[in-house]
Amino acid sequence: MRYIEPHAHMVSRVTDDYVAMVTAGCAAICEPAFWAGFDRSSPQGFFDYFRQLTEHEPKRAAKFGVPHYCWLCINPKESEDVQLATEVIGLIPQFLSAPNVLGIGEIGLNKNSRNELRVLEMHVDLAARHEQLILVHTPHLEDKLKGTRLILDVLKNDRRIRPERCIIDHVEEHTVGLVLDQGFWAGMTLYPETKCTSARAVDILECYGSERLWMNSACDWGVSVPLAVPYAALEMRRRGHAPEAIDRAIFGNPVRFLSQCPKFTPAA
Ligand SMILES: [Zn+2]
Q1: Which of 21, 143, 183, 223 lies most in the core, judged by the most C-beta atoms within 10 Å?
Q2: Which CATH architecture has domain 3-258?
Q3: How far does the centroid of ligand 1 lie from the alpha carbon of residue 136, in Å?
């Protein structure tokens, strides 16, 4: 088995997780910038985090033979302070030329507030000006549907943005159709408690086809499973999906999307 982990927060994982992922066939790990579990107090905190994502973590991953990529942004949970967000967004361009940066993410909404929307538009503008791919986080609260609609509107309203260069993550049964119908890619997050289980994700794949879908573990500092993607592959195998279909879902598709950034090269 070979697979890509397109969404994992490795700065909060232990080295054993790297060993397990590489042993299971992981050919590349991509790490969106996100909330640390607490609010950072200054732009300097983000500057150090961006250095960790672009300098330190790729070296750590290389020790286990896996390429590490990242996405940069100030996450929606810390976007309420527009002044802070403006300063953090101002720091990002100097990191965009780093060899492991794939684009802007995970941007989006958390509580669907006015300030979050403003910061989302600033990120979309940043991505457009620098021709970056976009990775979007959709809210986990009950207004996921409303949040997803608001996010798609922001992306659609900016004529410089091409939907095939944006992935909308954390989709569920009630949002996946909306995302795919408008030409975007959709990501399913496999979580043991909340979000999608493997069985639900494979149900969605079976209903919507696998053309513009990927799966990720989004493992972080909370309850999460770094091997969730290979586990979902086992669920596909159990249901009788062909080996080529499994390979497309967990390797071919993420490679196809991520290769729109010329820097992306999975391990052979
Ligand atoms: Zn995440």
Answers
A1: 21
A2: Alpha-Beta Barrel (3.20)
A3: 9
